[in-house]
Description:
Number of strands: 27
Largest sheet: 8 strands, antiparallel
Distance between the termini: 62 Å
Radius of gyration: 25 Å
Number of helices: 4
Amino acid sequence: MIKKLTSMKAMVLGATVLSVFMVSCQKDTLETTIDKADSTAVERLFDKIDPEMQSFTIDPSQPKTITGSEGTVINIPANAFVDANGNKVTGSVTISLKEILSLKDQITSGVYAVSNDSLLKSGGEFFFEATANGQKLKLAVNQFITFDVPADEVDPNMQVFVGNEVKQDSTGSSVNWVQADSSQFKTVVTDSIFNQKDSVWSTDSSWIASYKLYMTLSGYHMKVYDIYNTSYYNCDHYYNYPNLIQTLPFTVVNLEKSEEEIVDYTVKLVYKQLGSVIDGYSNTGQGMIVDNTFSGQISSTWLTGEDVVIIVVGVGKKSQKTYFGKSTLNVAANSKPSVSISVMSDADLSAALDNL
Length: 356
Protein backbone atom coordinates (compact mmCIF):
# COMPACT_ATOMS: atom_id res chain seq x y z
CA MET A 1 0.00 0.00 0.00
CA ILE A 2 2.81 2.43 0.85
CA LYS A 3 4.42 1.81 -2.55
CA LYS A 4 1.15 2.53 -4.34
CA LEU A 5 0.72 5.79 -2.46
CA THR A 6 4.30 6.80 -3.23
CA SER A 7 3.78 6.01 -6.89
CA MET A 8 0.56 8.00 -6.90
CA LYS A 9 2.34 10.98 -5.36
CA ALA A 10 4.92 10.85 -8.14
CA MET A 11 2.17 10.79 -10.75
CA VAL A 12 0.39 13.75 -9.13
CA LEU A 13 3.65 15.68 -8.87
CA GLY A 14 4.44 15.01 -12.50
CA ALA A 15 0.97 16.08 -13.56
CA THR A 16 1.28 19.24 -11.46
CA VAL A 17 4.63 20.16 -13.05
CA LEU A 18 3.16 19.54 -16.49
CA SER A 19 0.11 21.67 -15.65
CA VAL A 20 2.27 24.53 -14.41
CA PHE A 21 4.35 24.34 -17.60
CA MET A 22 1.25 24.39 -19.79
CA VAL A 23 -0.31 27.30 -17.88
CA SER A 24 2.93 29.28 -17.98
CA CYS A 25 2.88 28.94 -21.76
CA GLN A 26 -0.71 30.15 -21.92
CA LYS A 27 -0.93 33.03 -19.44
CA ASP A 28 -3.60 34.73 -21.47
CA THR A 29 -5.99 31.83 -20.73
CA LEU A 30 -5.06 31.35 -17.08
CA GLU A 31 -8.05 33.13 -15.59
CA THR A 32 -10.58 31.64 -18.02
CA THR A 33 -9.81 28.15 -16.70
CA ILE A 34 -11.81 29.10 -13.61
CA ASP A 35 -15.33 28.06 -14.48
CA LYS A 36 -17.16 28.50 -11.20
CA ALA A 37 -18.01 31.67 -9.30
CA ASP A 38 -16.85 32.07 -5.72
CA SER A 39 -20.15 33.25 -4.26
CA THR A 40 -18.58 33.64 -0.84
CA ALA A 41 -16.58 36.62 -2.15
CA VAL A 42 -19.78 38.55 -2.77
CA GLU A 43 -21.20 37.38 0.56
CA ARG A 44 -18.12 38.70 2.35
CA LEU A 45 -18.57 42.00 0.53
CA PHE A 46 -22.20 42.22 1.68
CA ASP A 47 -21.17 41.36 5.23
CA LYS A 48 -19.24 44.65 5.35
CA ILE A 49 -22.40 46.70 4.77
CA ASP A 50 -25.06 44.38 6.20
CA PRO A 51 -27.20 45.85 9.04
CA GLU A 52 -25.65 44.90 12.36
CA MET A 53 -27.24 42.68 14.96
CA GLN A 54 -28.07 45.00 17.87
CA SER A 55 -27.83 43.75 21.46
CA PHE A 56 -29.54 45.04 24.62
CA THR A 57 -29.36 43.76 28.19
CA ILE A 58 -32.48 44.20 30.31
CA ASP A 59 -33.85 43.38 33.76
CA PRO A 60 -36.87 41.14 32.98
CA SER A 61 -38.61 42.10 36.22
CA GLN A 62 -39.09 45.66 34.93
CA PRO A 63 -40.99 46.93 31.86
CA LYS A 64 -38.63 48.05 29.12
CA THR A 65 -38.88 50.06 25.91
CA ILE A 66 -36.13 49.51 23.33
CA THR A 67 -35.61 51.60 20.20
CA GLY A 68 -33.60 50.11 17.36
CA SER A 69 -31.14 52.15 15.30
CA GLU A 70 -33.59 52.22 12.37
CA GLY A 71 -36.58 53.26 14.47
CA THR A 72 -38.24 49.99 15.50
CA VAL A 73 -39.74 50.45 18.98
CA ILE A 74 -40.13 47.38 21.21
CA ASN A 75 -42.27 47.41 24.35
CA ILE A 76 -41.59 44.55 26.77
CA PRO A 77 -43.76 44.23 29.90
CA ALA A 78 -42.41 43.18 33.29
CA ASN A 79 -42.03 39.45 33.90
CA ALA A 80 -42.72 38.66 30.25
CA PHE A 81 -40.23 35.83 29.86
CA VAL A 82 -40.03 32.20 30.90
CA ASP A 83 -37.48 29.55 29.99
CA ALA A 84 -38.12 26.48 27.83
CA ASN A 85 -39.63 24.69 30.84
CA GLY A 86 -41.99 27.54 31.68
CA ASN A 87 -39.98 28.80 34.66
CA LYS A 88 -39.89 32.54 35.38
CA VAL A 89 -36.66 34.23 34.29
CA THR A 90 -35.03 36.28 37.04
CA GLY A 91 -31.52 37.04 35.75
CA SER A 92 -30.57 39.48 33.02
CA VAL A 93 -31.98 38.93 29.54
CA THR A 94 -30.23 39.68 26.25
CA ILE A 95 -32.37 41.09 23.46
CA SER A 96 -31.03 40.68 19.91
CA LEU A 97 -32.55 42.83 17.15
CA LYS A 98 -31.74 43.08 13.46
CA GLU A 99 -33.82 45.53 11.43
CA ILE A 100 -34.26 44.69 7.73
CA LEU A 101 -36.33 47.68 6.71
CA SER A 102 -34.87 48.78 3.37
CA LEU A 103 -34.17 47.24 -0.03
CA LYS A 104 -30.48 47.53 0.73
CA ASP A 105 -30.96 45.59 3.98
CA GLN A 106 -32.70 42.79 2.10
CA ILE A 107 -29.92 42.62 -0.48
CA THR A 108 -27.02 42.53 1.96
CA SER A 109 -28.67 40.23 4.52
CA GLY A 110 -30.10 37.79 1.97
CA VAL A 111 -33.41 37.83 3.87
CA TYR A 112 -35.95 38.46 1.12
CA ALA A 113 -39.73 38.75 1.25
CA VAL A 114 -40.34 35.34 -0.33
CA SER A 115 -42.91 32.72 0.63
CA ASN A 116 -42.42 29.30 -0.98
CA ASP A 117 -40.54 30.93 -3.90
CA SER A 118 -43.29 33.55 -4.38
CA LEU A 119 -42.61 37.25 -3.91
CA LEU A 120 -44.47 39.11 -1.18
CA LYS A 121 -45.13 42.80 -0.80
CA SER A 122 -43.06 43.75 2.23
CA GLY A 123 -43.60 46.44 4.84
CA GLY A 124 -40.50 45.67 6.87
CA GLU A 125 -38.74 42.64 8.33
CA PHE A 126 -36.85 42.14 11.54
CA PHE A 127 -35.11 39.52 13.65
CA PHE A 128 -35.88 39.45 17.38
CA GLU A 129 -34.67 37.03 20.00
CA ALA A 130 -34.58 36.99 23.80
CA THR A 131 -32.05 34.78 25.55
CA ALA A 132 -30.77 34.11 29.05
CA ASN A 133 -27.66 32.04 29.78
CA GLY A 134 -27.43 31.26 26.08
CA GLN A 135 -30.93 29.73 25.97
CA LYS A 136 -33.81 31.08 23.90
CA LEU A 137 -36.76 32.29 25.97
CA LYS A 138 -40.53 32.05 25.62
CA LEU A 139 -43.25 34.49 26.56
CA ALA A 140 -45.18 33.76 29.72
CA VAL A 141 -48.88 32.91 29.47
CA ASN A 142 -51.01 35.97 28.63
CA GLN A 143 -47.92 38.08 27.90
CA PHE A 144 -47.05 39.72 24.60
CA ILE A 145 -44.49 42.12 23.14
CA THR A 146 -45.33 44.97 20.79
CA PHE A 147 -43.20 46.15 17.90
CA ASP A 148 -43.77 49.46 16.18
CA VAL A 149 -42.17 49.13 12.74
CA PRO A 150 -41.66 52.42 10.86
CA ALA A 151 -42.83 52.70 7.25
CA ASP A 152 -42.92 55.50 4.68
CA GLU A 153 -46.25 54.22 3.36
CA VAL A 154 -48.78 52.08 5.24
CA ASP A 155 -50.63 49.35 3.35
CA PRO A 156 -53.89 48.30 5.07
CA ASN A 157 -53.65 44.84 3.47
CA MET A 158 -50.55 43.86 5.42
CA GLN A 159 -50.54 40.76 7.63
CA VAL A 160 -48.05 39.27 10.05
CA PHE A 161 -45.70 36.72 8.50
CA VAL A 162 -43.19 34.67 10.46
CA GLY A 163 -39.96 33.37 9.00
CA ASN A 164 -38.43 29.92 9.06
CA GLU A 165 -34.70 29.71 8.42
CA VAL A 166 -33.86 27.50 5.45
CA LYS A 167 -30.71 26.70 3.52
CA GLN A 168 -29.74 28.88 0.59
CA ASP A 169 -31.83 27.81 -2.39
CA SER A 170 -32.41 28.93 -5.96
CA THR A 171 -34.08 32.15 -4.81
CA GLY A 172 -31.18 33.01 -2.58
CA SER A 173 -33.50 33.32 0.39
CA SER A 174 -32.30 32.31 3.83
CA VAL A 175 -35.79 32.73 5.33
CA ASN A 176 -39.09 31.38 4.07
CA TRP A 177 -42.05 33.48 5.19
CA VAL A 178 -45.35 31.94 6.28
CA GLN A 179 -48.49 33.85 7.15
CA ALA A 180 -49.14 33.70 10.88
CA ASP A 181 -52.17 31.70 11.94
CA SER A 182 -54.36 33.21 14.63
CA SER A 183 -57.65 31.60 13.72
CA GLN A 184 -58.58 30.12 17.10
CA PHE A 185 -58.84 32.25 20.23
CA LYS A 186 -59.63 31.61 23.89
CA THR A 187 -57.61 33.71 26.32
CA VAL A 188 -58.25 37.47 26.62
CA VAL A 189 -55.33 39.91 26.96
CA THR A 190 -55.21 43.71 26.82
CA ASP A 191 -52.87 45.94 24.85
CA SER A 192 -52.33 49.04 27.02
CA ILE A 193 -51.18 51.13 24.05
CA PHE A 194 -54.56 50.85 22.32
CA ASN A 195 -56.50 49.80 25.42
CA GLN A 196 -57.84 47.03 23.25
CA LYS A 197 -58.59 43.47 24.28
CA ASP A 198 -57.54 40.54 22.11
CA SER A 199 -58.50 36.91 22.30
CA VAL A 200 -55.49 34.63 22.06
CA TRP A 201 -55.41 30.92 21.40
CA SER A 202 -53.41 29.05 24.05
CA THR A 203 -52.29 25.52 23.17
CA ASP A 204 -51.04 24.73 26.67
CA SER A 205 -49.86 26.50 29.81
CA SER A 206 -46.44 27.37 28.40
CA TRP A 207 -47.00 28.38 24.78
CA ILE A 208 -49.27 30.97 23.20
CA ALA A 209 -49.46 31.36 19.44
CA SER A 210 -51.00 34.48 17.98
CA TYR A 211 -50.01 37.63 16.13
CA LYS A 212 -51.89 40.85 15.54
CA LEU A 213 -51.12 43.79 13.29
CA TYR A 214 -52.56 47.30 13.41
CA MET A 215 -51.87 50.26 11.14
CA THR A 216 -50.60 53.52 12.60
CA LEU A 217 -49.80 56.89 11.05
CA SER A 218 -46.07 56.12 11.07
CA GLY A 219 -46.00 52.39 10.35
CA TYR A 220 -47.19 49.08 11.74
CA HIS A 221 -48.00 48.07 15.33
CA MET A 222 -47.34 44.36 15.69
CA LYS A 223 -48.35 42.31 18.72
CA VAL A 224 -46.39 39.10 19.15
CA TYR A 225 -47.41 36.27 21.50
CA ASP A 226 -44.84 33.72 20.35
CA ILE A 227 -41.11 34.40 20.31
CA TYR A 228 -39.95 30.83 20.76
CA ASN A 229 -40.88 29.10 17.52
CA THR A 230 -39.49 31.82 15.25
CA SER A 231 -37.16 34.79 15.40
CA TYR A 232 -38.12 36.45 12.11
CA TYR A 233 -41.16 38.70 11.67
CA ASN A 234 -42.47 40.62 8.68
CA CYS A 235 -45.35 42.89 7.71
CA ASP A 236 -46.33 41.35 4.35
CA HIS A 237 -49.08 40.37 2.06
CA TYR A 238 -49.34 38.07 -0.92
CA TYR A 239 -49.03 39.75 -4.30
CA ASN A 240 -50.99 38.51 -7.29
CA TYR A 241 -48.88 38.38 -10.44
CA PRO A 242 -50.58 36.26 -13.11
CA ASN A 243 -48.09 37.17 -15.85
CA LEU A 244 -44.79 35.69 -14.79
CA ILE A 245 -41.70 34.92 -16.84
CA GLN A 246 -39.20 32.61 -15.24
CA THR A 247 -36.21 33.02 -17.57
CA LEU A 248 -34.91 35.82 -19.79
CA PRO A 249 -31.77 36.21 -21.92
CA PHE A 250 -29.32 38.33 -19.99
CA THR A 251 -26.07 40.19 -20.72
CA VAL A 252 -23.45 41.57 -18.36
CA VAL A 253 -20.74 43.82 -19.80
CA ASN A 254 -17.59 44.63 -17.85
CA LEU A 255 -16.69 48.21 -18.76
CA GLU A 256 -13.18 47.75 -17.36
CA LYS A 257 -12.40 45.31 -20.20
CA SER A 258 -9.49 43.73 -18.37
CA GLU A 259 -8.41 40.52 -20.05
CA GLU A 260 -6.78 39.32 -16.83
CA GLU A 261 -9.84 39.88 -14.66
CA ILE A 262 -12.78 37.59 -14.03
CA VAL A 263 -15.61 38.88 -11.85
CA ASP A 264 -17.76 36.71 -9.59
CA TYR A 265 -21.13 38.43 -9.58
CA THR A 266 -24.66 38.13 -8.30
CA VAL A 267 -27.88 39.43 -9.86
CA LYS A 268 -30.70 40.93 -7.79
CA LEU A 269 -34.13 41.98 -9.03
CA VAL A 270 -35.48 44.90 -7.03
CA TYR A 271 -39.23 45.60 -7.20
CA LYS A 272 -39.44 48.95 -5.48
CA GLN A 273 -43.24 49.10 -5.64
CA LEU A 274 -43.34 45.87 -3.64
CA GLY A 275 -40.47 46.70 -1.33
CA SER A 276 -39.09 43.29 -2.30
CA VAL A 277 -35.91 41.74 -3.66
CA ILE A 278 -35.20 38.37 -5.24
CA ASP A 279 -32.11 36.70 -6.69
CA GLY A 280 -31.45 35.86 -10.29
CA TYR A 281 -29.45 32.74 -11.03
CA SER A 282 -27.81 31.10 -14.00
CA ASN A 283 -29.39 28.01 -15.50
CA THR A 284 -25.98 26.43 -16.04
CA GLY A 285 -25.42 25.75 -12.35
CA GLN A 286 -21.82 26.85 -12.84
CA GLY A 287 -22.11 30.07 -10.89
CA MET A 288 -22.03 33.49 -12.52
CA ILE A 289 -18.78 34.92 -13.81
CA VAL A 290 -17.85 37.53 -16.41
CA ASP A 291 -14.57 38.52 -18.01
CA ASN A 292 -15.47 41.16 -20.58
CA THR A 293 -18.98 40.04 -21.54
CA PHE A 294 -21.38 37.40 -20.28
CA SER A 295 -24.45 36.32 -22.23
CA GLY A 296 -26.77 33.64 -20.98
CA GLN A 297 -30.09 32.92 -19.34
CA ILE A 298 -31.08 34.27 -15.94
CA SER A 299 -33.97 32.65 -14.09
CA SER A 300 -35.90 34.55 -11.46
CA THR A 301 -39.30 36.11 -10.86
CA TRP A 302 -39.70 38.40 -13.88
CA LEU A 303 -43.07 40.16 -13.44
CA THR A 304 -44.42 41.31 -16.80
CA GLY A 305 -45.67 44.87 -16.87
CA GLU A 306 -43.76 45.74 -13.69
CA ASP A 307 -40.72 48.00 -13.38
CA VAL A 308 -37.70 46.21 -11.98
CA VAL A 309 -34.29 47.57 -11.05
CA ILE A 310 -31.69 44.97 -12.00
CA ILE A 311 -28.48 45.26 -10.03
CA VAL A 312 -25.27 43.32 -10.50
CA VAL A 313 -22.67 43.22 -7.71
CA GLY A 314 -19.37 41.43 -8.14
CA VAL A 315 -15.86 40.91 -6.83
CA GLY A 316 -12.80 40.56 -9.05
CA LYS A 317 -11.12 37.18 -8.62
CA LYS A 318 -7.65 38.61 -9.07
CA SER A 319 -7.95 42.23 -7.96
CA GLN A 320 -10.62 41.73 -5.25
CA LYS A 321 -12.10 45.01 -6.48
CA THR A 322 -15.82 45.67 -6.11
CA TYR A 323 -17.93 45.88 -9.29
CA PHE A 324 -21.43 47.32 -9.57
CA GLY A 325 -24.02 48.13 -12.21
CA LYS A 326 -27.76 48.62 -12.47
CA SER A 327 -30.46 48.97 -15.07
CA THR A 328 -34.21 49.64 -14.93
CA LEU A 329 -36.55 47.54 -17.06
CA ASN A 330 -40.28 47.28 -17.64
CA VAL A 331 -40.55 43.52 -17.99
CA ALA A 332 -42.04 42.11 -21.19
CA ALA A 333 -41.95 38.73 -22.91
CA ASN A 334 -39.40 39.99 -25.44
CA SER A 335 -37.15 41.73 -22.91
CA LYS A 336 -33.40 41.22 -23.20
CA PRO A 337 -32.00 42.90 -20.09
CA SER A 338 -28.39 44.05 -20.06
CA VAL A 339 -26.30 45.57 -17.27
CA SER A 340 -22.87 47.20 -17.51
CA ILE A 341 -20.60 46.89 -14.48
CA SER A 342 -17.56 48.91 -13.45
CA VAL A 343 -15.26 49.24 -10.45
CA MET A 344 -16.75 50.99 -7.42
CA SER A 345 -15.51 51.53 -3.88
CA ASP A 346 -17.27 49.71 -1.04
CA ALA A 347 -18.46 53.07 0.32
CA ASP A 348 -19.93 54.05 -3.05
CA LEU A 349 -21.59 50.65 -3.35
CA SER A 350 -23.22 51.15 0.03
CA ALA A 351 -24.46 54.59 -1.06
CA ALA A 352 -25.76 53.21 -4.37
CA LEU A 353 -27.78 50.55 -2.55
CA ASP A 354 -29.12 53.18 -0.15
CA ASN A 355 -30.46 55.10 -3.14
CA LEU A 356 -32.34 52.26 -4.83
